[in-house]
Specification:
The chain is an all-beta fold. 0% of the residues lie in helices and 55% in strands. The strands form two sheets. Strands 2, 4, 5, 6, 9, 10 and 11 form a seven-stranded mixed sheet that branches. It has a four-stranded antiparallel sheet with strand order 1-3-8-7, with no helix packed on it. The chain is globular, with a radius of gyration of 14 Å. It starts with a strand and ends with a strand.
Length: 119
């Protein structure tokens, strides 16, 4: 059974930093594209950052230059380093693992971790 477990969320003041971690188990981590999504109150879930199995990254415009996604295949873990946090970064952050093989697709989610940016 594939499991994704996020950690590292919390309350931080504007301008502060947090690092989120997502540990995976039950599958070959290196074969998956990984993503961090967030859902703010009253808004749809959006992709914040993604990293392919080959290490290519992409970011939503609002976090470019502030957030960095990385992965450690030896530890089966993906990270999201968040710097210069703003109140609008507040939300529940979800880890996602995605893979397509032929006609089959695989899509897994973590339970989410709350990030609150407030003074």
């Amino acid at each position: 059974q594939v499991q994704l477990v996020e950690s590292g969320g919390g309350l931080v003041q504007p301008g502060g930093s947090l690092r989120l971690s997502c540990a995976t188990s039950g599958t070959i981590f290196s074969a998956y594209a990984m993503g961090w999504y967030r859902q703010a109150p009253g808004k749809q879930r959006e992709l914040v950052a993604g990293i392919t199995s080959g290490g290519r990254t992409n970011y939503v415009d609002s976090v470019k230059g502030r957030f960095t996604i990385s992965r450690d295949n030896a530890k089966n873990t993906v990270y999201l380093q968040m710097n210069s946090l703003k109140p609008e970064d507040t939300g529940v952050y979800y880890c996602n693992a995605k893979k397509t093989m032929g006609w089959a697709s695989y899509d897994y989610w973590g339970q989410g971790t709350q990030v609150t940016v407030s003074s």
